[in-house]
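User: I'm curious whether this sequence folds into something compact or stays loose and floppy. Could you predict its structure so I can see for myself?
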Amino acid sequence: MSVYVNDDLMDYDEAMARFDVVIGLEVHVELNTASKMWCGCTTEFGGEPNSHTCPICLGLPGSLPVVNAKAIESAIRIGLSLGCEIAQWCRFARKNYFYPDMPRDYQVSQSDEPLCFDGEVTVEVDGEEHLIPVERVHMEEDAGKTTHIGGSGRIHGAGYSLVDYNRSGVPLMEIVTRPIYGTGTKGPEVARTYLAYLREMMRALGVSEARMERGNMRCDANVSLMPKGSTELGTRTETKNVNSLKSVEAALRYEIRRQAAVLAAGGRVRQETRMWNEGGFTTAGRSKEHAEDYRYFPEPDLVPVAPSREWVEELRATLPEPPAARRARLQAAWGFTELEMRDINGVEGALELIAETIEAGAPASAARKWWVSDLARRANEAGVALDEVGMSPGQVAALQALVDSGALTDKLARQVIDGVLAGEGEPADVVAARGLAVVSDDSALSAAVDVAIEANPGIAQKIRDGKVQAAGALIGAVMKAMAGQADAARVRELILEKLG
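Assistant: Here's the prediction. I'll summarize afterward.
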């Protein structure tokens, strides 16, 4: 079912000239612990609905939770990587509200006593640094998943709804920023860059897959506008559960234009949640004009968490190289320009795959080319993550080795990719089975060159007259006749030999 949207929108540049933007980001990250937050059920993605459950994560009467120690460790390492203070003592609380896929009608979370607090990170956009103040990093549990059957797939118009509790109780981190000021026209890009930083950091720490398309990482994006010269925060909206870097930037840009049009017309922005539609717009959710009373109170079934200072320092020593420093080091080692590196950062998961392909023996430029262009396009068309496209870094390196040896051209290599993705084996197997190797046999090439010369006497005469650049047309004719499998360099040599 299509959604009709009739929002008035102000031109983005005009909005930026009239208003200052204030952004806030709440990022939820699922941890990749082997078991759930309070029980031993697996956190493995997928599985039959309600097959990864037990009395504890179903919230059955009499079941008692136990804190997952690995989740606490991961949370502390995340907090340290964000420059946070680590609480010497904190506890969990019950956040009371009804949610269809919340089995207990409350969520175990943290309220005014987060595990990590008062951090900050710096991100760079177009050579300009922006400070992101982190208010808190707290732990909680994920909810289940509700699927609405019938109609548009939303609750309105559905015939009935099904609940899958496999995800219920999965360890969840919430990283909350303070209001982010001073981003100017770059606000949406700063938000996108910060999300990319978090995703890269989570993977470097090894605490989460951070796959936005799977919901491992998702963002609630808040934005408000202040008239130029004002110091009073405007009314904010919160766009919920945005699940891609591109969509976070687009949702913020849309909301800025929408709010600017409302204010310019003398209207009032409603404090509310919004939903992002991949068609390129937000729609109204529920009103948040009044603060919700979640009736927090300490979780009586869980003991407080009191990490020792010695343990915290031990965990600090395990932190990997910061993402920004690693990117700078790899960029220098690979010899990439800022623009080339930006292209890599814009493709989710590309950096690690390129690094692994280079480690497998491929030149840096070739590894970048295959992953950022051909394979990224195919992954996008298939609707899968880049590392699920069906080709490994080792196979990409093997493919490039065939190109470097002269056995394949780039055009033929793309046909080999087709074969590998179709399950026809390793690159060398596909080359053999499909007969894709470059033809470098002089007898076959010489015969094809003779045909091309005879069919193009005018071009041949230009070459005889010294216009060597005209050889390109004959090379193209030979390549076409041999289905792109001719050795272009040898074809050129033969043409020049035959035409003096």
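Summary: The longest helix spans residues 245-264. Residues 130 and 451 are 63 Å apart (CA to CA).
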